Request: fold
Amino acid sequence: MALGKFGKDAAERVAWTAAQAAVGVVSAEALGIPVEYAALFAAGLSLVKVFIAKHVGKDDAALPSTE
Reply:
């Protein structure tokens, strides 16, 4: 089944969100803080990803360019 450009983009976003959530939970537990703070870790990872993508993709985009 071919996903097409939209399907690939959607799958990538879902995978990144799941990975960020997992890292957030693991980080909170590893640091011994309440797991309720996992969302803050995940948001922080998202912010880091935006800055990395800015240098990898287009200067005016928050996502890496696939063009």
